[in-house]
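Help wanted!
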Amino acid sequence: MTNSQKLILITNDDGFFSRGIAKLAEVMSRLGRVIVVAPQSEMSGQSHSITVTRPISFKAEKDMPFECFSVDGTPVDCVKLALNKILPSKPDLVVAGINHGCNASINTIYSGTMAAVFEGCAEGISSIGFSMFSHSKDVCLDFVDDYIYDIAQNVLTKGLDKGVCLNVNFPIAEIKGVKVCHQADAYWNEEFVSKQDGDEGEVFWLNGVYNLRDTSDRADYRAIRDDYVAITPMQVDFTAYKVLESYAERFDKI
Amino acid sequence: MTNSQKLILITNDDGFFSRGIAKLAEVMSRLGRVIVVAPQSEMSGQSHSITVTRPISFKAEKDMPFECFSVDGTPVDCVKLALNKILPSKPDLVVAGINHGCNASINTIYSGTMAAVFEGCAEGISSIGFSMFSHSKDVCLDFVDDYIYDIAQNVLTKGLDKGVCLNVNFPIAEIKGVKVCHQADAYWNEEFVSKQDGDEGEVFWLNGVYNLRDTSDRADYRAIRDDYVAITPMQVDFTAYKVLESYAERFDKI
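Answered by r_m:
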């Protein structure tokens, strides 16, 4: 099979109209047939949520520089609908992004971008998320093409291990290199901003300060700050294997 | 510190009014001071989503058999708001549930219940999720008290390893015992149900068939089906450590 026959599903959580997804579609079209199935509005922070209380729909978006469908749902809805109702066949690759905002360390868990990647991975498809270390909608995306191409090409050619997907984060400055990383230990120290609302009384806007606890050489967040592309292999199995044996001794009643 | 001084935060994704959370609050009140901070409406399938596009608010719910606050947000919003704006101090334990529906295997990733548990865990607090192997709102909850008490008591006394939380799932039949498990490999085979909607055209209701690929003895889903309480230790670090070294050889450019 030549590259031109590969089928590549692209999604994101910023919406089908974002600059990041356009760049990703542009690069991916060099590797195969690209179909974009993405939310019709911004879905940041939606994590792995699915729409179960109402039906969802999709429509073809004309006047786009790529084949594109928008969905009135979450990134995970997009992947599910694409695989089952939109794509002509099972894709060879699911890619999400380029996200406007870092999805390293603890941010992974809130990310709609990485949720779409986990969903593709759970369906047994090679899946990669790409994110930029900046929330700016105007961030420069010109220097990431070759990195995206090389990583996606590598994955299309060699595959990924079963149950493993990639979380790729780009620095905003000149790239020094590429590092395979682990998810850095970090947390958000919430600082809700309270406001008086006429009807509701006191309301709270979620805000927070990011706290990085792990600054080791291969911690993803650190690598990005040091201007490396961080590739963090991730898995959809959340089992804490390192404690399985000791917890069996502690809790088992068989 | 005696048990009566322990502070226990309880949340869920079914809403503060659910039978499951009432049962959990009842059992937990034997272990310390219980404060319930839970969604004001059902939030199933919301995973780790957070509310960032509008402010959230909470209110005290009177006429409840426990101290209770409802939040117009997701389970993760509840934990964040509780820790920062509602509780008098950092809790000794975060518990979520009892969820009406199984949160074993791949369901973990969609679960608002387990998202709340992951959030507590990321904040460095011992956290446990409890779920029933039935979506029925009328499911019998009478036989789980002692198991919940024992597991929570054990965790309050001995703690959990850093970055590790517990995902506990109950069978619906008579309990044979307790097994520490791993997350079973499984996936949902989606079968969208399509309908014609006057305004929207064709719309799709998410539906699916559950496929269990892993039926080994310690697979959580299998253990529950075999009438064991399944305790799956989980972690908020999604790194696929098993492939780190080989992927570094494959992708590193340093």
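OP: Thanks! One thing I noticed: Chain B touches chain A through 81 residues (CB under 8 Å).
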